[in-house]
């Protein structure tokens, strides 16, 4: 009898977070942490993960890389969760007149009596970032 052991998805979520936190480009810059700051500051809304960066990251294993390329939809959601967890606070002020901010503020005010204390906007309703792979 052969038993195949596969790693539990939380292990892959930890790898995605580690990659986003620690990947440095050729100049030693923390590429994805800087990109996340740009998202927080609303200079961009997309997080584009280059597959070459994944392939070149020293701490990533081949099984993870294989899974990312073979099951992209699943791993986009894993990276999206990692982005949500790692997204820093904004370091720049932005206009309060942004339509998106006004809508989200109004929704939050309308739903302040949310009985089950769940996120009143639901999963991915804030829509402040998008995840892309580029290969």
TrEMBL record:
Gene3D superfamilies: mini-chromosome maintenance (MCM) complex, chain A, domain 1
Region of interest (Disordered), residue spans: 108-129
InterPro entries assigned: MCM_N (IPR027925), NA-bd_OB-fold (IPR012340)
Organism whose genome encodes this protein: Vanilla planifolia
Domain MCM N-terminal: 17-99
Descriptive protein name: MCM N-terminal domain-containing protein
Source taxon at top rank: Eukaryota
